[in-house]
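Side project, low priority. Logging it here so it doesn't get lost.
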Amino acid sequence: MRSPIAYAPRPGPLADTGALAATAYLGSIALVAFVYSNPIVLAGAGAAAAVAGVLAGARDALRAAARWGIALGLLIVIVNAIVSQRGDTILLRGGELPVLGRVDVSAEALIEGAILALRITVVLCAFAVHSACVDPDRMLRLLRPFARHSALTATLITRMVPLAAADHARLREVQSLRGPGAAPAGRAALTRRLVAGSLDRAVDIAATLELRGYARGVPRRASARRASRHGWRFAVAGAATAVIAIAAAIAGVGSFDPYPTAELDADAATLALAAGLPLIAAAPYVGLTRGRRRG
């Protein structure tokens, strides 16, 4: 069983693009989510991530990231509503709780929690598409000149995490197929088996890497795979997204302040910025077909 965010070779310009251009393209969308708190702009960034994922053929990764974002977002909204004791619009007056003291739930705290949840969901979607579409070996070659060991570690993580997720799914399936007379296997038992299997796999991988000579460095004859001739499109789109977003933020476009009462900037410039993000995300595909390979 393959994790939806695991890398798999797929046709399309993004899959053939170099790691630097693809990272700039998808990373700029995550940058917008970190820079802005305005829900209109965040919705535009989410639409941009969806456009990038759909055009790249990573719908499953988008769906998985959206599910994780919603689940995590609900928790964030609840925690923020309890912890943040600010806001003028009180929706629920709670009692006294140990350590926390008096707990009142305000509309502004719920709004701030929802903004944080939306921000996390956008970032998860952007990086889920990156994980599913960008070859981790290309990421390793990109980072090797700067941090060879860290790059190898990060590349292994991108491959090991989906394997651990698949192991967990298989263990759950095996548990469901056990007979009615079998002793119940709780979460602790599943966790122990999953950790033990991951440690065994880590030892095997370390031995394999040593056997193949990774400790001796990169062979001089090793050559990087030629990137797509369309990579400049994604690099330009990523740079344009980052520059426009940062310049607009400096100019005061898309401001938002949840306290003491929610104040949302929804003028023409904010709407234009939100609408422009998915258009920029789709721009590298203009004139190309999804199945077109490298030139």
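Brief comment: Residues 83 and 100 are 8 Å apart (CA to CA).
Revisit when time allows.
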